[in-house]
Amino acid sequence: MALFSPVGPTKLGLAYSSYVGPFLADHPGKIDYVEVPFELVHYDRRPLGLPDGMPLLLHCASLSLAGDVPPSAEIVDSLAAWVSKTGVPWLSEHMAFVTSGPSAGFDGSAVPSYDVGYSVNPPLNAEIAQRVISAVDCYRHRFGVPLLLENPPIYFAPPGTTMTPTEFANLVCAGCPARLLVDLAHFYLSCRNLGLDPVSELLGLPLDRIDQLHISGVSERDGAWWDDHTVRAPDEVHDLLSLVLRSTPVAAITLEYNWSGNFPISALLEEIERVRGSLTVAGVVA
């Protein structure tokens, strides 16, 4: 496989889904890389069906950086092997947890550790920020590549939250050399759910730490905003993309339309052209 190079013009990629291989066969040259979930290659050993020479990025949701239960040695060893095998310039992971530690139930009984199966936003406070900082320091040495920290979707402020997502990201970045993967859909829906202004909050991030962006859709139900990779990104998310591109260079932009193998190809092509158009307007050669 070819190696992804973070040097040069911004690269545009797709999050892996079953339609990506056939799409690339029918539309060669439309994208620059495919972002593959570590969990897929770890648990499902079938070939990805991608063209030879397609550069890859590796995305993860298993390290539980903000949690109090570390992943198994098997997961860490497998992840290290895939980082080495793919030659990725970084590993992206969420500032979230996937495993909850043992605790006491409402009736006083013991509740064992539980794998939630999804990256969950933690309470945003100094204690959790330090937990993320410590995990980043551990894993960047273990894997030998930088960690890009992704903002998870926030549907409500968890108990114990004392700061905004932007304040939390700034505190983490002040304590470690991690870089950022800003999921613009997550950022937009989180601000809407928390009553924050997405533009001012985005400008408050350490913009010079951003190496990668995610773009996907959102849905509104019963007054709340939700992550939705089956629909196209709204204009507001594309507006945030333009704001970032005017403020700082980024190495990669990933379209995450990966929850359905039937995502309309015509819509995907339009999204690709829209993002490349935004890169051109920002003065970036796409």
Notes on the protein architecture:
Helix 4 (126-143) packs across helix 5 (165-175). The protein starts with 10 loop residues before the first strand and ends in a 5-residue tail after the last helix. The chain has nine helices and 14 strands. The chain has helices spanning 20-26, 38-43, 73-86, 126-143, 165-175, 184-194, 198-203, 235-247, 265-281, and strands spanning 11-15, 33-37, 56-59, 91-94, 97-100, 103-104, 110-111, 114-120, 147-150, 179-183, 210-215, 217-221, 224-228, 252-255. Strands 1-2-3-4-9-10-11-14 form an eight-stranded parallel barrel, surrounded by five helices. A two-stranded antiparallel sheet has the order 5-8. It has a two-stranded antiparallel ribbon with strand order 6-7. Helix content is 36%, strand content 22%. The protein has 286 residues and is α/β, with parallel strands linked by helices.
Q: What coarse outline follows from CA principal-axis ratios?
A: globular
- The class by helix and strand makeup works out as alpha/beta
> What is the CA-atom radius of gyration, in angstroms?
18 Å
Low-confidence stretches: none
Sequence of strands across the biggest β-sheet: 1-2-3-4-9-10-11-14
| SSE string | EHEHEHEEEEEHEHEHHEEEHEH
SS summary, helix count: 9
Number of E-type strands: 14
Summarize model confidence as the mean pLDDT: 93
Amino-to-carboxy terminus distance: 22 Å
Q: In which range does the helix fraction lie?
A: 25-40%
Q: What is this entry, summarized?
A:
This protein has helices at residues 20-26, 38-43, 73-86, 126-143, 165-175, 184-194, 198-203, 235-247, 265-281; strands spanning 11-15, 33-37, 56-59, 91-94, 97-100, 103-104, 110-111, 114-120, 147-150, 179-183, 210-215, 217-221, 224-228, 252-255. The chain has 286 residues and is of the alpha/beta class.
